[in-house]
Amino acid sequence: MINKRSMFMSLKTRRIFGALAVSLSISFSAIATPAASAQELVVSTSAVNEFGVVTSDITAEQILQAQDLIAEMKQSEDIYEYFGALSDVEQRSIIAAVKENPYLIENESPRMRVQSETPDEETPDKKKPSKTYKLYMSILEMMSCINLVDVPSCAQALKAANIAEREAKARYPDSVTNGKGDALRHCAWSALMTIRIGKDAAERIGNAHETVVRGEPEEREMDLINNALGRDIGERFIINGDETGALSTCVSMANIGLLHTLL
């Protein structure tokens, strides 16, 4: 005959395992039922251009006039706040001018490095790239981002990028290019952006990034796929603003090979 202590322990054990089962079910539901896996998701790299800044209508005269705006922008206290206050045509004229001649803002690089040395948490309202991510979102990319969305959203994108960069380097320091670290960075970045600024803005910023940076077609496709997976994950956690849950899901997907890599 089973004594009361044995019955109590048996009941307690069943409850523990029952709770674990529910917890695991909830945890893996975000992983096991993504809208599409990396293998199933097909993203057209040509479609990215729809989200890029259109400069084909900018005339040679407007590009020439933009150089005066660039000179004023360099003298401003915050080049992004200055740029954000310009009209759409003025912004796109500057972007066209910089695309045509990157040296127009080349001498701003040392200034950007100085600005980026201040930690994000000490300047929460500043719209400046952080030290860890300045190579990921260049001055040209930030201007493109501001033109497509707005200054506050791009500031949030930068903060999300910092977190994603740290997570990727901490977990996969040897595969931050085309490997699991790279995939995790894009997944986490897009997931956090989706939670903070919405899926549409996250998609515009993520796709605009691919129109600015240089890379092989397969690398762009990899980034686009992981961006899309990240946005899907972010959307699942957006109601409660659960950034930790979104990051954990991206990490889990990277660990078990559900993100797209080239290595």
Automatic annotation (TrEMBL):
Annotated signal sequence range: 1-32
Highest taxon of the lineage: Bacteria
Keyword Signal among UniProt keywords: yes
Protein name: DUF6973 domain-containing protein
Provenance organism: Corynebacterium glutamicum (strain ATCC 13032 / DSM 20300 / JCM 1318 / BCRC 11384 / CCUG 27702 / LMG 3730 / NBRC 12168 / NCIMB 10025 / NRRL B-2784 / 534)
A Pfam short name: DUF6973
Region described as Disordered: spans on this chain: 107-129
Keywords assigned: Signal
Domain DUF6973 residues, every copy: 153-236
Phylogenetic placement of the source organism: Bacteria, Bacillati, Actinomycetota, Actinomycetes, Mycobacteriales
Record-linked InterPro entries: DUF6973
